[in-house]
TrEMBL record:
PROSITE patterns: IMP_1 (PS00629), IMP_2 (PS00630). Keywords: Hydrolase, Magnesium, Metal-binding. GO terms for molecular function: inositol monophosphate 1-phosphatase activity; metal ion binding. It comes from Sporocytophaga myxococcoides. It holds the Pfam family Inositol_P. Its EC number is 3.1.3.25. Belongs to the inositol monophosphatase superfamily. This is Inositol-1-monophosphatase. It comes from the Bacteria.
Length: 262
């Protein structure tokens, strides 16, 4: 399988979906918003963009299964499985805030082998395939060289489930507020991971996630020279609902997380 060839086809596909998202945001009627769960919004735009992705991905790799956020197609894991979030940052999108993305990952036998994160408004497409490195709009990217917690810029998100974990999580955030260069909340986990991969962020963390939130982004970080774990330092980030991704400051950042997560 030529992963580079497939990856570049996916990049082209996300450009088409990007154009759809931009057009719809200009005309979007907020009365069409649905509520899936507490603070979990969805619109026809999420569903329509997912259908566009699914149709294109079927043409690229007909034998693959799908795991998708909006379940517009039967969910089935196969030897190759697409894991997609058609609109990561739905709340930003619906409030006409500029940061949201398209996230497409390809998994084989439990391993992510291809990832594309397309940040829509800046038209920044981050992509990687296993063993091929990570790229932004055709240029190779790497995590930054900072190794110090005090010089690190960290991104995070705030979830409205697993409330029993809230105190431990805010202990981590409180530590980062006091000891780092700053903490940011961008509103798209996929973009957080992409920004770690290209060196804009030193690390990002979040819990109560789904595989489609992170599948593409974790490969970007790894192929850019970074590290990805769960909050305890293990590898259960894809199914374990928590992720910590860092550049060269991994040692100090991960220690701060592990010491406070229980």
């Amino acid at each position: 399988m030529n992963l580079e060839h497939i990856c570049l086809k996916v990049v082209d596909l996300t450009k088409d979906v990007m154009n759809f998202l931009k057009k719809e945001q200009e005309e979007f009627d907020r009365s069409n918003i649905e509520l899936k769960g507490k603070n979990d919004l969805v619109s026809y735009v999420d569903k329509q963009s997912e259908m566009l992705l699914v149709r294109g991905l079927k043409e690229i790799l007909p034998e693959a299964g799908f795991i998708t956020e909006e379940a517009t197609i039967s969910q089935e894991e196969k030897k190759y499985t697409w894991i997609i979030d058609p609109l990561d940052g739905t709340t930003n999108y619906l409030h006409k805030m500029p940061l949201f993305s398209i996230s497409v990952g390809l998994m084989s036998e439990g391993r992510i082998i291809l990832g594309v994160v397309h940040e829509v408004n800046l038209d920044e497409c981050f992509y990687a395939w296993e063993g091929g490195g990570a790229f932004l709009n055709g240029n190779r990217i790497f995590v930054n060289d900072n190794t110090a917690l005090k010089a690190s810029l960290i991104a995070t998100g705030f979830r409205y489930k697993q409330l029993d974990k809230t105190e431990a999580y805010f202990n981590i955030i409180n530590e980062f507020v006091k000891t780092t260069n700053g903490v940011r909340r961008l509103g798209s986990t996929a973009v957080d991971l992409a920004y770690v991969a290209c060196g804009r962020l030193d690390g990002c963390l979040e819990y109560n996630l789904n595989s489609w939130d992170i599948a593409a982004g974790v490969l970007l970080v790894k192929e850019a020279g970074g590290a990805v774990t769960d909050f305890t330092g293990g590898n259960d980030f894809l199914s374990g609902k928590e992720v910590l991704a860092c550049g060269k400051a991994f040692e100090e950042i991960s220690t701060a997380v592990k010491d406070r997560w229980n």
